[in-house]
Design brief:
alpha/beta, binds adenosine-5-diphosphoribose, 9 strands, six-stranded parallel β-sheet, about 35% helix, three-stranded antiparallel β-sheet
């Protein structure tokens, strides 16, 4: 492990373009449940029952009760060492931080120019996509005053500004992530690498000649693809690499 971490630290130190893409595993140490790991959300709930437009159309109250629970959970959590180190790395020119996470702990840690592929738990938009309500607005209130929040523009239901299964990502975020796949080092941290298009960016980066690496608690479908797969907790491994960089 020491040799591998030194090798990765050397690559990161030498990189003029570094891209880091994170998943739920980076927030696990903060107490935010992952989706597919032990005790993960999708082990208790069916994603299609809660994180799809169909589910919202069927039962908006159920969907909002679930998101209200997640907001309350995340509100009681704090960024961990992994978030703090990535926030510092993100200040370095040529570094892009891309996340699948909707908890905004990277933002709370001070990350710069974060690419949020799947949206935010703390942003809402009009469920009816009224002209004014399509642009997300921030709402940090916990608890939310109404079980089902409404759009301040048209009075219709509001929904979390999160990309649900079956929905497209914002093209501008995809473009930024794709652009960042042209880099010297592409590092994924805490993702099971099964949800696309996010899981495809490391393949892109490899095709474009980047050194690719993965830090994850468990093996993933990307483990055999990347140049270096390091199994272990991000909040312990990133500080070691950071010290080597220092
Ligand atoms: N450090 C590093 N990795 C960890 C840690 C940790 N402390 N704890 C858990 N992991 C790993 C798990 O082994 C698992 O492979 O993090 C990964 C989390 O995987 P998922 O729960 O599938 O989360 P993620 O990859 O972010 O999911 C992608 O799927 O449900 C949708 O939109 C949702 O953004 C999410 C997307």
């Amino acid at each position: 492990m020491e040799t591998e971490l030194r090798a990765l630290a050397a690559r990161i130190a030498a990189a003029s373009r570094l891209t880091v893409m994170t998943g739920a595993g980076v927030s696990a140490a903060s107490g935010v449940p992952t989706f597919r790991g032990a005790g993960g959300l999708w082990r208790t709930y069916r994603a299609e029952d809660l994180a799809t437009p169909e589910a919202f159309a069927r039962d908006p109250r159920l969907v909002w009760e679930w998101y209200a629970w997640r907001r309350e959970k995340v509100a009681s959590c704090h960024p961990n060492a992994a978030h703090d180190i990535l926030a510092r790395w993100s200040q370095r020119p040529g570094t892009t931080l891309v996340t699948q996470n909707v908890d905004d702990l990277h933002l709370r840690a001070g990350s710069r120019d974060l690419v949020r592929l799947h949206g935010s738990l703390w942003e809402l938009r009009c469920a009816d996509a009224c002209a004014a309500g399509t642009r997300p607005w921030r709402d940090d209130r916990v608890p939310l005053p109404d079980v089902i929040p409404t759009c301040p523009h048209c009075g219709g239901y509001a929904r979390p500004a999160i990309v649900w299964f079956g929905e497209s990502l914002d093209g501008r975020d995809v473009d930024r992530a794709l652009d960042a796949a042209t880099c010297d080092v592409f590092l994924t941290v805490g993702t099971s690498a099964v949800v696309y298009p996010a899981a495809g960016f490391v393949h892109q980066a490899k095709r474009r000649g980047a050194f690719t690496a993965e830090i994850n608690m468990d093996e993933t479908p990307a483990s055999s693809l990347v140049d270096l797969s390091i199994l272990g907790p991000a909040e312990e491994i990133l500080p070691v690499i950071d010290n080597m960089l220092a």
